[in-house]
Amino acid sequence: MSRSASTAFAPVPATPPLLGLYGLTVRFHTPGGIVEAVSSVDIAVEPGEIVGLVGESGSGKSTVCLAVMGLLGPRAETSGTLHYQGRPIVADAVGLRGRSIGMIFQEPRGSLDPVRTIGSQLHELLGLHRPELVGAAAEAEAVELLRRVGLPAPERQLRVYPHEMSGGMAQRAAIALALTGRPSLLLADEPTTALDVTVQAQVLELLVRLRDDTGMAVLLVTHDLGVVAQYADRVVVMRGGKVVEQAPVRTLFQRPTHDYTRQLLAALPRPDAAMAASEKSEAAEPLLRAVGLSRHFAGRRSLFRGVAPKLRAVDDVSFAIAAGETLAVVGESGCGKSTIALMVAGLIGMTAGRVEFSGRDLGTMSAPQRRALRREMQIVLQDPGEALDPRLSVATQVEEPLVIHRIAGNRQQRRERVRATLTAVGLDDWVLERRPHEISGGQRQRVSLARALVLEPRMLVLDEPTSALDVSIQAQVIGVLARLQKERNLAYLFISHDLRLVARVADRVAVIYLGRIVELATSARLFAAPRHPYTQALLSAVPEPDPERRGRTRIILAGEPPNPTAISAGCRFRPRCSLARPVCGTEDPQLAEVADGEGEAVACHVVHGAA
User: Fold this and answer.
1) Dihedral pair phi/psi, residue 73, rounded to 5°
2) How far is CA 282 from the centre of its chain?
3) How far apart, in whole angstroms, are the C-alpha atoms of residue 507 and residue 94?
4) Do both 445 and 476 map to the same domain?
5) Residue 478: its pLDDT value, please?
6) pTM of the predicted model, to two decimals?
7) Could you tell me if 340 and 288 lie in one domain?
8) How many CA atoms lie within 13 A of 354 on its CB side?
9) Looking at the structure, do residues 296 and 332 belong to the same domain, yes or no?
């Protein structure tokens, strides 16, 4: 609980909203002094309303939710007025928490007990919030909650532990826990940030359905304005702990009044925007060629279950990338995208296939030859916090590749090259002696990029390089990549699950499903007219940053991304495909060019005219 709270400063309307925050201010007492995380925030949520609370990381969004729930901790001090149905929240935060006000968190596994089944956790909360339910009645209610949030075989899910669930299933279980007290207000703190676009669509549609069925209001915290455009009724924009603008969703997108809101909207990548990258000539000689790439992982032996089945992460994947070209690889989590990136970069071995770079087969090279090749092909990993050494300064880490490869002369010459590279990615000399924890996430990602570029490579493998960044920082990093590609004629293998971003940066796109390419086409053709049913579903699930497009027909894939250890015969997408034919159950479709596709290739019996 907070140290103190005042409820006498701001007036409460004659007809109070469901949730009313008036002049909410939150200060944290830290060893370095007092930090004001939220300053004079006014927010109202009406019954049955979905309010989007948006802003970059550190803007105070999550702090607002924690203040409402009374979960700020002993170092926090709150002031202002917090009312639920016109009554002060602070006086009864514990009584309201879970019953009248529920909350779901960004990382579902962090809010689920890893050593207890989902059923036991549901029973505990039902006993706390609805003690009248006992025995068979409590069991029936637990099953009904899991059924309501769309979990398959809910009776079986009661016996499942959180680690046995996928990310989407764990998020649904977390929503079920939040619904045990039948709350009339749900605080959803970034509930889909870590999910694939298809699972994100399922969870968001679930929240809307729950709102429609029960009249529950939702305060939806997110940094994705596309999500807000499709699902929110009103939008509150925060920056630096303050509300800078709030308006109905259509008004905000059509006529934003604050410069910061306009900057956020301008930074959004849009699937229907013109492609930033020009299409490359098919006659260009490939710089990199991957042929028949496969990577299978042997199943582990268990004392009770025997040997687990083989995991086929990547299965017979082929593609080529020319100098100055960007090939994007997209698909759901677990489809094999990062495994492809690691094989291309030479960081893991191949079960089958080969990678050729500048006409040389990486598999036939000696260790010294492969080390020399790494000067020409570098990788930038998804999480710069894990890729950078927390003990070393930025200058030391960017200089390290030069030392390893024994280039750029003496120490002074190396430092000059480090400075020039950091300048190229938009960083000044002040970061040289900083350590990773002393700079922002966007700056850490630029340092990772600088470390890869300092060797002046010909190609970068970019594994989700912007997924952890806010939209404005993401736009800055993508701008740097585009400029460097133009200046240095760099080739990019760009791994991402953000299709709006891919539309902006890619020349060609390879869509991966269960370790196989199911569609390969130029970015312009793929986003204008996707052929494969899976590609159509991916694009349909992307939340468009345009409230006027809410009524569009969407394809919501049922079920979770499939298990790569249990691939059935025939087409891998068949269990989730509404267009499946009898042949799809017996024959695995091969990637083949479409007759009128100008080089576009699709692996689908229906597209190729099967009856």
Assistant:
1) 95, 170
2) 32
3) 54
4) no
5) 86
6) 0.79
7) yes
8) 9
9) yes
